[in-house]
Amino acid sequence: xxQGEEDPQALSIQEGENATMxxxxxxxxxxxxxxxxxxxxxxxxxxxxRSNEREKHSGRLRVTLDTSKKSSSLLITASRAADTxxxxxxxxxxxxxxxxxxxxxxxxxxx
Amino acid sequence: xxxxxQHPSRVICKSGTSVKIECRSLDFQATxxxxxxxxxxxxxxxxxxxxxxxxxxxxxxxxxxxxxINHASLTLSTLTVTSAHPEDSSFYICSARDGxxxxxGELFFGEGSxxxxx
Lengths: 111, 118
Description:
- The complex is a heterodimer.
- Chain A has strands at residues 5-7, 10-14, 19-24, 29-37, 43-50, 55-58, 61-66, 71-76, 85-93, 99-101, 105-110.
- Chain A has no helices and eleven strands.
- Chain A starts with a strand and ends with a strand.
- Chain A is globular and about 40 Å long.
- By secondary structure, chain B is mainly beta.
- Chain B is 0% helix and 53% strand.
- Chain B is built from no helices and eleven strands.
- Chain B has strands at 4-7, 10-13, 19-25, 30-38, 44-51, 57-58, 67-73, 76-81, 90-98, 108-109, 113-117.
């Protein structure tokens, strides 16, 4: 199966609530990245967390990484309708150099 | 900085024709570019890795004679879908890695090209 699997597949919340998405992977990684994709558009890089880091913040985003469990989470706090998009995690596999994407979580934030 | 331009954004062609999609890094040198295919509501499927000046590395199951990739310069990679058929209709996205920041693993994406084969 694919390296990088997100859950939930779909998430619907009200504006102002927090949204948490999870990503699991299978092999050793150099780093893990989260991307956002608006419908029909390319991907936008959100945040990168290295394999030796456990937590990282960027504005309303908080990412955690647990290499022992091979999992990561993305938390979006105080969500806005504009956060509605699909979110993907991508892993850069050690010694492979290429990024592999998970199936993504589709987030809908209702105003 | 770190802008990737992909062209065309939309293309409609007849079955049997070939279509070329360009991916350009506008303000950095992309030693490596990647081509993905994305079906509706699905993830990105890596098709091939394109390294400047060498042959592309294709993922298992991707026909190299069907999807021709050329990375002739540090700022341009092209994907040509040869003898396109309706099943090739999809959203194709390229990404590029900045050679000066290759160790970060960060990718910069084009806006994607939607191919519709009639």
